[in-house]
Amino acid sequence: MMRILLLDDSVDNLNLLKIYAKKSQDDFTMVSKSDEAMSLLQKECFDLFFLDIQMPGKDGFEVLESVREIKNGKELFICALTAHTSKDEVEKIQSSSFDDYLKKPILREDFLNYIEKYSVKAAG
Fold first, then answer.
1. Is the pLDDT score of 96 beyond 90?
2. SS3 (DSSP) at 51
3. What is the pLDDT of residue 85?
């Protein structure tokens, strides 16, 4: 079982992903504010972090930079969540320290398959 953190400022997105998460055996923590996520990451270890890019205040790239500076964030697998998949946005994600990205809207099967694929990959 993996511990998965999800940060998205949209309550609607979080509610949808909570429904999806019920189909998984993994332990999900979902938050809507970057400071909540940072606080959790400083105290706890997670296996996977889904991070929304478009957020008020600190955007996902700024949060990513902060996460990579803390002990529990250096090796953490971080997947960007984005509704913008233009060539420029994808290149920006790929040139950052994000490990991967998922395009919104996120479909249930895509979300669960992604987690399963990552779980198998992480288990090596």
1. yes
2. strand
3. 84
